[in-house]
Design brief:
Order of helices and strands: HEEEEEEEHE
Shape: globular
Low-confidence stretches: 1-23
Mean pLDDT: 88
Strand content: 25-35%
Number of helices: 2
Radius of gyration: 19 Å
Largest sheet: 5 strands, antiparallel
Distance between the termini: 66 Å
CATH class: Alpha Beta
Helix content: 10-25%
CATH topology: Phosphatidylethanolamine-binding Protein
Number of domains: 1
CATH superfamily: PEBP-like
Length: 187
């Protein structure tokens, strides 16, 4: 037996189905610190392991998060690191929902810029806070994927020493949407 859905119900279902993707497409992130069209500036490169940057976290700005956003998380990931699983350079969670930017250096210990209550997780360098790019010498340039995640919870409830994988799991389980900006760096 064929069942027909009334026209008004069909329009309502269509509006609902198309509303979320349009809103997710409006969610954007940008950085005045770097351009996707150019290599990452040296000030954001690690000052260790043979690299000689200033290790400053980049400034970020994001707009138009999805409705229902209760907090944000920021991740910076290198999928090209020769580890078999990439490399986590920065993980910040519990950023309040009214926040729309982080200043340059906010991810560095002793520098202002992270909002009250935000938690920086451990990176693959073994410590919390920003750890700049430092791919192996002579390797092709690596991609650095910076993502702002809009979350449906105010707090993720992860311990401060949680691994990047644990934080990533909790972010993905609570994500409403995400905005990505990417750059490269090689040496």
């Amino acid at each position: 037996m064929t069942r027909f859905v009334p026209f008004a119900t069909s329009l309502a279902l269509l509006a609902f189905a198309t509303a979320a993707p349009v809103q997710a497409e409006d969610f954007t992130v940008s950085s005045p610190s770097f351009s996707a069209a150019a290599p990452l500036p040296e000030r954001h490169v690690l000052d260790s392991f043979g690299c000689h940057g200033q290790n400053l976290s980049p400034a970020l700005r994001w707009d138009h998060p999805p409705a229902g956003t209760r907090s944000f998380a920021v991740t910076l990931y290198d999928p090209d690191a020769p580890t078999g699983s990439g490399w986590w350079h920065w993980v910040v969670v519990d950023i309040p929902a009214d926040q729309r930017a982080l200043p340059e250096g906010a991810g560095n210990a002793g520098r202002p810029g992270l909002p009250a209550g935000a938690l920086q997780g451990r990176t693959d360098y073994g410590a919390p806070g920003y750890g700049g790019a430092c791919p192996p010498e002579g390797a092709p340039p690596h991609r650095y994927v910076l993502t702002v995640h809009a979350l449906k919870v105010e707090r993720l409830g992860v311990p401060p020493d949680a691994s990047p994988a644990m934080m990533g799991y909790m972010i993905h389980m609570n994500r409403l949407g995400s905005a990505v900006v990417q750059t490269t760096y090689g040496r």
